[in-house]
């Protein structure tokens, strides 16, 4: 609209110059410019209705919400991630976009009740097939289907989750039972309140006393 106004002003000025020009060469140049401006104005796109403009504006702008809640399941061939979004089935299909790579995916839902929604999964546990992966829109739900490259069971979704589980397991799963118990007590002591710490200290002192008397062989 702004560009169109500028062109109209240019055309008015060229017409004004034409009325004052007396030299043929100058008039020819001005006439050529006049035709060019008229053609450019004619080819300008028609202004869009206000409601269309408002709709486009809201689809691009608006508040963006990061999705953190989801459910997941798996079959032999797919990892399935379920994301609940009220009314998502009413959106045009192109407003729900998923971009896959071999170890990640990004979900973008545009202009759902005036907001945009995003979710990113990086470092998936195992590689997926980009071509075989897709998304489905169901009632109040987006289902992201990640096609497994190998038909095997996944113990979790991401590499980070796996590392976290392994660290936790290693803290208690040792060949020496007393060492596992010690690690568990240390964790309880570190995370416990004052009452918990007093209880553990008391148990520790009592176990030391019993050990010194030869009542128990195991050092906890």
UniProtKB/TrEMBL annotation:
The keyword Cytoplasm applies. PROSITE patterns: CS (PS51203), SGS (PS51048). Residues 65-158 form the CS domain. InterPro entries: CacyBP_N, Calcyclin-binding_UBL-bridge, CS_CacyBP, CS_dom, HSP20-like_chaperone, SGS_dom, Siah-Interact_N. One of its GO terms (molecular function) is tubulin binding. Keywords: Acetylation, Cytoplasm, Nucleus, Phosphoprotein, Ubl conjugation pathway. It is found in: Cytoplasm; Nucleus. One of its GO terms (cellular component) is nucleus. One of its GO terms (biological process) is heart development. Residues 143-220 form the SGS domain. Gene3D superfamilies: 2.60.40.790, UVR domain. Transmembrane segments: none annotated. May be involved in calcium-dependent ubiquitination and subsequent proteasomal degradation of target proteins. Probably serves as a molecular bridge in ubiquitin E3 complexes. Participates in the ubiquitin-mediated degradation of beta-catenin (CTNNB1). This is Calcyclin-binding protein.
